[in-house]
Design goal:
mainly alpha, two-stranded antiparallel ribbon, two-stranded antiparallel sheet, 3% strand, globular
Length: 462
């Protein structure tokens, strides 16, 4: 592994730059972090708070940094893998409804799984993991993580599309063209700043890109309101108007997030021991699935920063940090956390691996969750603008995985078929639902790849 970093893990940027870099990391992860509670709300009517999710992600990241001794530059955000688990724990069907208490108990089960896995790794080392998941397995899996998110980026770009053709093509109406223009401007600004920018410009391409896209969206929206053209109203000002309607005062400027553990207190009286089995079934298997993705994320990050995180600070520490961080995140924000590919992509593109930047991002996430206008601003960033940013973030994740495959001997059919067994099912969307357990396409592809690789390797040795 070779380093090509502007800021290494231990480097400390100047304070004013540090705040800007941290804000950029926040922009990279914010859309996905607040999307998870929104999706659970849509399915259950839970009323989870986006600001609480930000608070929980900040706390979870600080916990992770403590366990990893501030040697792993990645932010923890709300985990999409646990969405179905959260829905099951919150609602649970007719005979069970633990609500917010169920979310905390579920995260605790996931944390226990992480702790057990960390203990096994501590006792047995990581050698077996490298044999079980060599580059021919990890490389395409990392690529899949980026590719699997591509649909989210495209959906963001075309977020204003009201309909599709029978072939699944977006119908380009006037409002879609406006959103598309904002997305493409954002994408091009990020690419140009990152590739040809000088000094500071090259270090903050996402901030410049988002501001450029937001500025165009604002211009179009103002014209739309002035001329009465709904198709040009790209920005939804509802988050701001809600603040103004309540009166501009200290109470609306500063507000305490609706923290999960406070809401969970009301569900204690409804607790029954029989509920634990249902929650355990919803969370425990998913925790094992996320374990594999945890390894892939840290292998990818290791290749970017030139340090093997599985060895130093050690996989047992990253697992404990991820697991306990998930519990902490759920206690405050309801969502189990996980290491974020968007954060890894931000590190890769900006070449800023400074851990203090990640730590500062966590602190900012906690602080801004109390500042209503700032939360409103983040809520008002159009999906099309974030879609343009995500094209670059997710693309870098995919390319990082492909770079791992470069050193694999593809003339060897064992490697060729292992990679094929991961990429095709993963891109094809192979997923399984077994009872309350949903196994994602990435997890299915990884499991199949491990089986094929292990089988072919053992036959080859005979």
């Amino acid at each position: 592994m070779t380093k090509n970093l502007v800021y290494d893990i231990k480097d400390k940027p100047r304070f004013d730059r540090l705040l800007i870099f941290a804000f950029q990391q926040l922009l990279a992860i914010i859309a996905a972090t607040i999307a998870v509670p929104a999706m659970v709300n849509s399915a259950t009517g839970a009323g989870m708070s986006a600001s609480a999710a930000m608070f929980g992600a900040g706390i979870g990241t600080l916990v992770y940094q403590l366990f990893t001794r501030f040697k792993s530059p990645v932010f923890l955000g709300s985990s999409f893998a646990f969405i179905r688990s959260m829905i099951a724990a919150f609602a649970g069907g007719v005979s069970m409804s633990l609500g917010y208490l169920g979310l905390i108990i579920g995260a605790a089960f996931a944390g226990i799984v992480y702790a057990i896995l960390a203990l096994i790794v501590k006792l047995a080392g990581v050698g077996w993991i490298n044999k079980l998941m060599p580059a021919a397995v990890i490389g395409p899996t990392v690529a899949l993580i980026g590719l699997s998110l591509s649909g989210s980026a495209v959906s963001g770009i075309f977020s204003y599309a009201a309909a599709k053709t029978p072939d699944g093509e977006f119908i380009m109406t006037a409002n879609v063209w406006c959103a598309f223009a904002c997305a493409i401007l954002t994408l091009l600004v990020v690419v140009l700043c990152s590739t040809y920018g000088k000094k500071m410009t090259r270090l903050i391409p996402f901030i410049i890109g988002v501001l450029a896209g937001y500025a165009l969206a604002l211009i179009l929206t103002v014209i739309g309101h002035t001329a009465g053209i709904d198709a040009m109203k790209v920005i939804d000002f509802t988050p701001f108007t809600n603040l103004v309607s309540n009166g501009v005062n200290l109470g609306t400027f500063l507000s305490v997030p609706e923290l999960t553990f406070l809401k969970a207190l009301g569900g204690i009286s409804d607790f029954k021991w029989s509920y634990l089995a249902t929650i355990a079934v919803a969370y425990v298997p998913v925790a094992f699935v996320v374990f594999a993705e945890h390894i892939a994320d840290h292998k990818n990050l290791s290749s970017i920063i030139g340090e093997d995180l599985l060895e130093k600070p050690g996989l047992h520490r990253t697992l404990l940090g991820d697991g306990i961080g998930s519990v902490a995140g759920a206690i405050f924000g309801g969502c189990p956390n996980t290491t974020y590919g968007e954060s890894v992509g931000c590190v890769a593109i900006t070449r800023n691996a400074s851990v203090i930047t990640i730590t500062t991002t966590a602190v900012i996430a906690i602080l801004v969750s109390f500042i209503s206008p700032f939360v409103a601003f983040l809520d008002s960033i159009p999906e099309c603008v974030m879609g343009g940013v995500c094209v670059t973030l997710y693309g870098f994740i995919a390319v990082s995985g492909l770079k791992m495959i470069q050193k694999v001997d593809l003339e060897d059919n064992a490697n060729l078929f292992t990679i094929s067994a991961i990429l095709i099912p993963g891109i094809g969307g192979m997923a399984m639902k077994i009872g309350q357990v949903y196994i994602t396409p990435i997890a299915c592809a990884l499991i199949l790849g491990i089986i094929v690789n292990t089988l072919l390797t053992k036959i080859k040795k005979k």
